[in-house]
Structures are given as C-alpha cells and as structure tokens.
Write a structure and sequence with these properties.
Blueprint (H helix, E strand, L loop, with lengths): L4 E7 L5 H10 L4 E5 L6 H6 L1 H19 L15 H26 L2 E4 L1 E6 L2 E6 L2 E12 L3 E3 L12 E2 L1 H4 L8 E5 L3 H12 L3 E6 L10 H13 L3 E4 L3 E7 L2 E6 L5 E3 L1 E4 L3 E3 L32 E3 L10 H15 L13 E3 L4 E6 L2 H7 L3 E7 L4 H6 L5 E7 L5 E8 L2 H13 L4 H5 L10 H10 L11
Parallel strand pairs: 1-2, 1-6, 2-3, 6-17, 8-15, 9-10, 9-15, 10-11
Antiparallel strand pairs: 4-5, 5-6, 7-16, 12-13, 13-14, 18-19, 19-22, 20-21, 21-22
Helix pairs in contact: 1-4, 1-8, 3-4, 3-6
C-alpha cells in the first residue's frame, strides 16, 4: 500500500530521477518516484538516446550490407529494407530496458507513482494520476523532469510532416527529402539514420559551422566525411518559417532559396521541462531558458527542494543527469559529493563517432591559456586499418607549463568508448606524459590516445607530430 510520507520524493523517472531514487534507497531512505509516463527511463530511454542508437546501429548495418562488405571479401545479393522490423527491434530494446528499471525499483523498494507531480508547499507534492489525486509529504523533494525539444520561431510543429526527434524516430517510411534544422548532436545522428536508409538529407545551420561547442578541427573534418556520405549542409542558414502545402514541406531561409522536402526535423536544442510543477508555490523562479537555479549540492531557493539534470544549467546529457543525481543524494546523506563539470564527456554517435571531453582549442585561446597540442591520425593506426576505417584523429590538449590534460577530442570508430580513458585520466589530474606512459594493448584504437599524448611533446612513434 502506498504510504503518505517519505524521506525523498523524486519528480521524474529519467536518468536523473530513477538513479537518484535507487541511490537514496541504498542509503536507507524511503523513496517515491513520480512520472507521468507508462514507461520509466525518461526521454533518453523512451524517445531519445536509446531508440536513436538502435536506429543508428540498424541503419549502419543496412548501409554496410549495401556498400561496405565487398572490400572484406563478403559479397551479398539484393539487400532490402524492412523498416517495420527495424522499428520493432528498436521498440523491443526500449521495452526491455524500461522493464529493467521497473525491476530495479521493485528490488530497491522504490514506490512508483504514475502521474503528474506538483509542489503545493515545501515538502509536499500533489500527485495527479489516472486514479485521481493524492497528497504526499517528504523531507526532501528532487526535481528531475528533464527537457523537451526546443521550439523554433516561425516553424509550427504538426507532429507529422514538421516534427521533432520524437517523430523522426518513428517515420513509417523513408522520406525522399529530409530537411534537418540544426547541426548539433540530434540533427546529425537522425540525419545520418535516414540518409543511410535512402533519404536525401539537407542540414540547415544558422552558425557558420556544425557541432557548436565541439573542437572546430574535428567538426570541419566530420562535415567533410558526412558530405562524402551524401548529406548536404547549408551553413549560415537562418530559417524563417516552414509550412506544409499539398503534402509538401516548404522551408524558407533568410537570403536563400526556399527548400521543398517530404519532411522537416527541427533539432535546434532542448528546453528544460519545468512548467506545471508548482514551482511558484514554493518561491522557485526558473530563468529565461526555463532552467531552475541551484546552489551547493543542487539545492534550489526553496527549503528541502533540489533539482538535477536537464532542468538545470549545463549540457542536456543523460550521463550528466545521472552523475548529478548520485552527487545530490550522497550530499543529502552527509557523504562527500561533487561533480567535475570539466570532465563531462560528449559523444555524437554518427559514423565515424565524435567524442570530446574538456576544453577545446578555441576555448583555451579565448581564455588566453598557453597549451600544447598533440594529434594522431588514425590512418597510422593498425587497428583502424584492419577495420577499414582510417578517417579521423585523436587530439590531446595539455597545459604548456604543467602538462596537465585540458581536453581530448576524438573523431573515428568507437570514439565514444575511447573517450572514457581520457575522461578518467583528466578526472585524476593526469598529464600528457602520464597518459603516454600507459601501456595500451596492441592492436587497439586506444593506442591512438597514447600516440597523441606522445605527440604533445613531439615524440609520436608512428606519425610525425601534427599541429
């Protein structure tokens, strides 16, 4: 039977919320977690990270079967696409993982409540669900409501022809022409999926580059590779409006020709999900981005109310939310907790993958910080050669005086896995020389990190140092 009072109430069952709930029970707290969706896991699991990666993997296999097997001596006949089966696989993965979180909740004795949670006063939450309303009390309340796709002025979403990533994960047929507005993580990943499956994809970006915030060299090199794959880019393209007429979408940019296409994907970022939470009743005022201001240990301005993840400042990343959730709950339990925002990695799961952690060269230059750069090209990697994937590089940036690693940027196969070693090295304050002294197994892609670290001091073995 559901109780009325808890040590902690978590509003939101995504990567921040469900991780916080489980961690709190591990530390002896009674916990209720409120989420309005039938499946736990938040946007990441239901309509974000997981389904997009499932489609990325499936579309990559399809593309390889059509174009990539012959060099390996594998000859295939007529390759056909079964989009229904591809979507079914994606859905089964989501269902399995969501069910796994349900199992974890039962194991940890987290009370799960489906409904909308609203603060009515400090320490009290009203749950509005299918079975009516229920008022709960708690010593602590954690808001982890995540984010949603950001709107774009002049573009009216219709949930079909003009939509967000949610719709783009479930197209019932491959669009003939897809216009993607926004050249960030989401736009490039989903643009890659539908390009591989046969769509003519055009990416529009208001800035003069793709992947804002990532290393500029990697972004430029990645763009060239995407163009080779058939994706077109129009940079400096400010979209004024997008409309649908007679089954066709029309996208108009300032100073440019109007584009006609089958579908439009709006991927211009994400906005905090903080409406209708009763924040005003406890004196919390979100900023202009809808984000909740927090102080030490993620405390809001309201006593006993905390917030983590996409609904506060910082990159909208699932692992950032989970990391903050662990730190927040540990702090509530009186344990040492902190989040090092200099070591939050980011990964774009295109092909090749793009991964980054720490500062970029552009940021260091703006800060006036002296640094050294070491670059290793994957064309000199034995493992990359055996994979047949030699496009890409590893760049390490280190302080010119202390040699401490300040940033690592990887473009290439399995970059998302390779960045983990770099993140760990930076978290423990390693220098480029420290990383160079690590014995990497051969032949692996991870050797490239060691070579790039050597290149910081112009000692790379398999490739002359490149700046």
């Amino acid at each position: 039977m559901t109780r009325d009072a808890y040590d902690l109430i978590v509003i939101g069952g995504g990567p921040g919320g469900y991780v916080a709930a489980i961690r709190a029970t591990q530390l002896g707290m009674s916990v209720a977690c409120i989420d309005e969706n039938a499946q736990l896991g938040g946007t990441c699991l239901r309509v974000g990270c997981i389904p997009s990666k499932a489609l990325l993997e499936s579309s990559r296999h399809y593309d390889q079967a059509r174009h990539g097997f012959a060099p390996h001596g594998v000859l295939v006949g007529d390759v056909r696409l079964d989009l229904i089966a591809m979507h079914q696989r994606k859905s089964q993965i989501v269902k399995k993982l969501a069910g796994g979180i349900d199992g974890l909740f039962k194991q940890a004795r987290v009370t799960r409540l489906q409904g909308r949670g609203r603060l009515t006063e400090p320490g009290r939450v009203l749950v509005v669900g299918l079975d009516g309303e229920r008022s709960l009390a708690a010593k602590h309340v954690l808001i982890a409501t995540g984010s949603r796709p950001a709107p774009l002025a002049g573009v009216a979403l219709d949930g079909d022809r003009i939509g967000t990533s949610t719709e783009a994960l479930a197209y019932s047929e491959v669009p003939k022409q897809l216009v993607v507005i926004g050249a960030g993580y989401i736009g490039l990943e989903l643009g890659s999926v539908w390009s591989r499956l046969g769509a003519k994809v055009t990416v529009l970006e208001a800035l003069d580059r793709i992947l804002p915030g990532m290393d500029l060299d990697l972004a430029r090199n990645a763009q060239q590779l995407f163009e080779k794959q058939g994706i077109s880019f129009q940079l400096g393209a400010r979209v004024e409006n997008a409309t649908v007429a007679k089954g066709k979408c029309m996208v108009r940019c300032s100073g440019a020709e109007t584009l006609a296409c089958s579908r439009v994907l709006v991927a211009v970022g994400r906005r905090a999900n903080t409406e209708d939470l009763g924040l005003e009743t406890v004196g919390i005022s979100p900023d202009e981005r809808g984000e909740i201001p927090v102080g030490d240990n993620f405390a809001t301005s309201a006593p006993g109310v905390y917030a983590v993840g996409d609904c506060i400042r910082g990159p909208k990343l699932a692992h950032k939310a989970s990391h903050e959730a662990l730190a927040c709950i540990d702090a509530l339990a009186g344990r040492h907790a902190q989040v090092n925002y200099d070591t939050i990695p980011g990964v774009v799961y295109t092909h090749p993958e793009i991964a980054s952690v720490g500062r970029t060269e552009q940021q260091l230059q703006e800060e006036g910080r002296e640094y050294r750069s070491g670059v290793f090209l994957l064309q000199a990697s034995g493992r990359a050669r055996t994979l047949g994937e030699t496009d890409g590089s590893v760049k390490i940036l280190a302080d010119a005086h202390t040699d401490r690693i300040l940033g690592v940027h990887v473009l290439g196969p399995h970059a998302g896995d390779m960045i983990a070693e770099a993140t760990a090295a930076m978290e423990f304050g390693a220098s480029a020389e420290d990383l160079a002294h690590v014995c990497h197994a051969h032949p692996t892609l991870a050797e490239s990190l060691g070579e790039a670290a050597l290149a910081v001091h112009r000692r790379a073995i398999h490739l002359p140092a490149v700046r």
